[in-house]
Amino acid sequence: MLKNKITGIFSILMIGASVFGSGLSAQDQAFDTRTVPQSREQVQLSYAPVVRNASPAVVNIYTKKIVRSRRSALYDHPIFRRFFDGNNSFGAPRERVQGSLGSGVIVRANGVIVTNNHVIEGADEITVVLSDRREFEAKIVLADPRTDLAILQIDTGEEALSTLSLSNSDTVLVGDLVLAIGNPFGVGQTVTSGIVSATARTQEGISDFGFFIQTDAAVNPGNSGGALVGINGELLGINTAIYSRTGASNGIGFAVPANMVKSVLRAALDEGQLVRPWLGIQGQTVNSELASSLGLDRPGGVLIDDIFPGSPAAQAGLSIGDVILAAEGVEIIDEGGLNFRIATKQQGENVKLGVLKGGFLEEADVSLALPPEVPERNISELDGRHPFQGVKVGNMSPRFNDELQLNPFLRGVVVLEVNPRTPAGRYQLMAPGDILISMNGVDINRVEDLNEAIDETSGQYVYRFRRRGQLAECLVTSRGNRRCRAVQ
């Protein structure tokens, strides 16, 4: 175990040199290959060869969604209905087709395409238009709202399509020249150029695993799902969002890095499902105040607040109070950056972490694993003669919580669905996302506990639950009377 006393100025360069050996990081190696123009002729070089090779792999995506509008409540009024018989279509629900557009990138010659989830979300029909104007119907292989990525498949028979190779996005540097290729405003395939403005934007709130390449290449509505291409012709990222008050480009665009695209693509094509490995920690970003108390000369890193028993972090010897400062020789600035690094890895893969432990910098070798599903989710619908009939519940676990986008450390029974035609739905006794704590004085740890605690002969039910972090207690009678209060 390597240890280095933290004295004086801390920098990630020290982590790379003293903890992870003398080898250069991927970014350092990439920096050594960059050159600035040395002559006027070099400044006048064209992007045309890169565009010619890359553009056939970028597609336009058109979606259609059938929207059903509710008829007016006036139509159900007895006075209004006197003038119309039951066969009259006036006031009946109407359907309209809502269209949207975006872009995508062919990453496999057999027609596998990467785009944004928000481009195809809720679509009833997806049409992919190739650069040569041929159209194909597409099906969704995998959609991941948490990264805002989706994998599509089109069938072109035996024809091999042009593709873009995915780059190692960790080698992207601020100042690198990039091209954005997509279908802005539906005008057709368009190419814009710019530079990488930043490489690790994590505070944008665009997706759960927000870690973006920022570029000033013009990106507009319709570019979503399109390619951010490096000068070597490889895919650096998928253009996802822009920062704008008007909806038009202000020179601030964000792309999902290619390394995240690889992990989602791997899940779609090889693993069949998207389950990300985890460290098994809860933490907080080290701000200036925390950095001062920890003896660091600048903010950065993730302070561990809790560790799940038996998790990869626990097995690697990490402890509450440790600070994760680096992963694989790359500095960890905040919690979002750490989540991104772990999310792009595979089950069983080893990750070397630079950890501040007791004033010393140590190397921790963590073997990643999938979050456990203990207990099994046991999704059940409550049945019987009681107010909670029709409520669907399940056991919480780190694996199931991750799917539900809940805190992996939460335990107990979670409400998944409430049938609106049941008393629980009509009287809003429970809501999806509620975490049940107790029922009639019985602690609820599993679905079996809940079933045993609900006494069908009881005239009233007292139960506690947590909703959006607030603990509440309700009393419900068999007749549907309900009183609730917040519990301090």
Estimate what percentage of residues fall within beta strands.
25-35%
Number of strands: 27
Helix % is 10-25%
Low-confidence stretches: 7-13
**Class from helix and strand fractions:** alpha+beta
Counting H and I runs of at least 4 residues, what is the number of helices?
A: 13
Largest sheet: 8 strands, antiparallel
> How many whole angstroms does the radius of gyration measure?
27 Å
Overall, the morphology is globular
What's the N-to-C terminus distance?
A: 46 Å
3D architecture notes:
The structure is a single chain. By secondary structure, the chain is an alpha+beta fold. Helices cover 18% and strands 35% of the residues. The chain has 13 helices and 27 strands. Strands 20, 21, 22, 23, 24, 25, 26 and 27 form an 8-stranded antiparallel sheet that branches. Strands 1, 14, 15, 16, 17, 18 and 19 form a 7-stranded antiparallel sheet that branches. A hairpin with a 3-residue loop joins strand 3 (94-108) and strand 4 (112-115). The longest helix is centred in the middle third of the chain and has 14 residues, at 258-271. It is globular, with a radius of gyration of 27 Å.
